[in-house]
C-alpha cells in the first residue's frame, strides 16, 4: 500500500533526508544538492532515461543549435530546478553564458510567452509544451539537452536508513515502479484510462493532446536497462552544479546512487 503526496522535489527530498518520508520521485541535481547539505538521500532507480528538458522555438526563428541562442530572449520558469540546469548545460555546449542571452522569468507559461512573442524561445519539458504548440498548428524546433549531455533525470529516491534497515522494501518498491513503467510502455491506452481515476481533470482534458504527451514521455523512459543509473550522468551533473556554483566541492557519487536494487 502506497500513499501518494504531491509537492516540490526540494520538499520531497528534504522529507526523505529527515526520515519523515520513505520514498520520493526526484531528479539528480536535487539528490546532490541535498547530500551537500548533509541529507543522506540515495537515488535507487532511474525513471527517465533522457533528461526531459529542452528549448523550443518557432521554426521560422531558425534556432536549431545551442550557439543559435546568442542574443535571443529566452523564457524560463525561473532560475531554479531542472529547467535552469538544462538551460545552463545547453548554453555551455554552445560556448555561451547567461550574459549572452536575454532571460525572461515567465513562470510556467511557455506556450503563451511564445505565441504572444514575449519570448523568442522557451525552456520546456520535452513531452509537454512542444506537443501543445504542435496541436495548435505551430511548427517548432526543439533543442534537447539529452542530445548534448547525459544528465540524471527523475528517479526513485530513498534514504540510507531505509536501505540499511529495510532493503526488501526498497527492492519491492523499485520492482513495482519498473513494472508500472514497463506496462505503460506496452499498453499506453490502458495506462491512460487508468490514470483518469487519479490525475485531476485528466478525464475532461483534450485526449488527443494528452495522449501525445504520454507518447512523448514514453520516449524519454525507454531503455534496454530499466532503472539503471548511468555513472556518466552523475559525473556530468556534479560538474554542471560545480560550474554553476551550486556545489562548493565534489561529493562521493557512489553514496548518492546505487543500482543494487534493480531486479
Note the gap between the termini. Answer: 20 Å
What is the overall pLDDT average? 94
Strand order of the largest sheet: 5-4-6-3-7
Low-confidence spans: none
Number of strands: 8
Q: Report the total helices.
A: 11
Largest sheet: 5 strands, mixed
**How large, in whole angstroms, is the Cα Rg?**
19 Å
Instruction: Assign the structural class, choosing from mainly alpha, mainly beta, alpha/beta, alpha+beta, or little secondary structure.
Output: alpha/beta
Describe the model.
This protein has 263 residues and is α/β, with parallel strands linked by helices. It is 43% helix and 14% strand. The protein is built from 11 helices and 8 strands. The strands form 2 sheets. The protein has a 5-stranded mixed β-sheet with strand order 5-4-6-3-7, sandwiched between helices. Strand 4, helix 3 and strand 5 form a beta-alpha-beta unit. The two termini are 20 Å apart.
